[in-house]
Specification:
This protein has 322 residues and is an alpha/beta fold. It folds into two domains: 14-108 and 302-321, NAD(P)-binding Rossmann-like Domain (Rossmann fold, 3-Layer(aba) Sandwich), CATH 3.40.50.720; 109-293, 3-Layer(aba) Sandwich (Rossmann fold), CATH 3.40.50.720. It has helices at residues 30-33, 50-53, 69-73, 92-97, 110-125, 128-136, 169-180, 204-207, 229-232, 252-261, 302-321; strands at residues 6-7, 10-17, 36-41, 59-62, 79-82, 102-103, 161-165, 184-188, 200-201, 212-215, 240-243, 265-268, 291-293. It has a seven-stranded parallel beta sheet, sandwiched between helices. Strands 1, 2, 3, 4, 5 and 6 form a six-stranded mixed beta sheet that branches. Helix 5 (110-125) packs across helix 7. The chain is globular, with a radius of gyration of 23 Å.
């Protein structure tokens, strides 16, 4: 469908963003969408508000708000834009029946996710939080009789076995960075379809023997519960497991217990239920220096979010041009 009518140099469509808080408050969305006739942004949207807010909308932008069959039937949407890569919040079959294109955005966060993965890895290997806190205490470094303090061991990455779980674009980026640190890099293909001549492909059992395991795969039938109690029991002492794929791949209850019972380290940017539940087992971990959790921010560098918005604008323009 073409929508080429101009309105004061813009394009005559109404665009509604349902959950702008997921894109951050430090970026002005109007600067990206002001060329279109009308743009309305809501910080958050409850399910009961969705239909009303989309009543006169031509195009919706959503990150996590559900666009269900009911929403599609009771609105006049002409394009659904997902401000993310995953489209599991959209009823794709209903959209197809209604002839409404669904456009997501891929590839915008590769560098951001890879960087956050290594920020967390280095923080754990070098115990950055502990040493920073020690230096800022009145009874810390300023009260030390010697120049150094070595209560928490730090370790090099060079020479360590590093296995990437899921060698997509982000996985490849992580693998190459690990290689630059001097790690011995391998990968496990969760689909069995990935082939890469640069890095050694290993079985899942071999992957579990690695010093560092970094997850960068989607959540699907092959990966849900992949790191269950049995798999996690095979991690070597001193191993670091990182999840920068999706929650549900790692059994969070079991890994929380392992962090306290063995010298196992865990870093994750994703949880099975987000935001974190108030009674989550991670909140009761005693060996907190072995655990590093971030609130699903790996994708969200300023640069990545700007790329995301520019690609959404492109998707809208391409649709309007037909």
């Amino acid at each position: 469908m073409k929508m080429s009518e101009a309105t004061q140099g813009g394009i005559s469509v109404k665009i509604v963003c349902l959950d702008s808080d997921t894109l951050g408050n430090d970026i002005d969305l109007n600067a990206y969408f002001s060329e279109f006739a009308e743009f309305i942004s809501y910080p958050k949207t409850e399910p009961s508000q969705t239909i009303q807010r989309l009543k006169d909308a031509d195009i919706v932008i959503t990150n996590k708000v559900l666009i269900t069959k009911e929403v599609i039937l009771k609105t006049n949407l002409k394009l659904i834009c997902v401000s993310a890569t995953g489209v599991n919040n959209i009823d794709l079959e209903a959209a197809k029946v209604a002839n409404i294109p669904v456009k997501n955005v891929a590839g915008y966060s590769t560098s951001s996710v890879a960087q956050q993965a290594f920020a967390s890895l280095l923080a754990l290997r070098n115990q950055v939080a502990y040493y920073d806190e020690y230096c800022k205490r009145e009874d810390g470094w300023s009260s030390s009789p010697i120049f150094v303090h070595l209560d928490k061991p730090i370790f090099e990455l060079e020479g360590k076995s590093f296995c990437v779980i899921g060698l997509g674009e982000i996985g490849k980026k992580v693998a190459n960075i690990a290689k630059s640190f001097g790690c011995v890099v391998s990968y496990y293909s969760t689909s069995g379809a990935n082939r890469n001549n640069e890095f050694k492909q290993v079985s899942f059992d071999e992957a579990l023997k690695s010093d560092i395991i970094s997850i960068h795969s989607p959540l699907n039938e092959n990966t849900k519960g992949l790191f269950d109690e049995k798999a996690l029991s095979h991690l070597k002492d001193g191993a670091i497991l990182m999840n920068y794929g999706r929650g549900g791949i790692v059994d969070e209850k079991v890994i929380a217990k392992l962090v306290d019972e063995r010298e196992i380290y865990f870093a994750s940017d994703v949880l099975e239920t987000e935001p974190m539940k108030k009674n989550h087992p991670f909140l009761n971990v005693k060996n907190k220096h072995r655990l590093l959790i971030t609130p699903h921010i790996a994708w969200a560098s300023v640069e990545a979010r700007k790329r995301l918005l520019n690609l959404i604008v492109k998707n809208i323009k391409d649709f309007i041009k037909g």
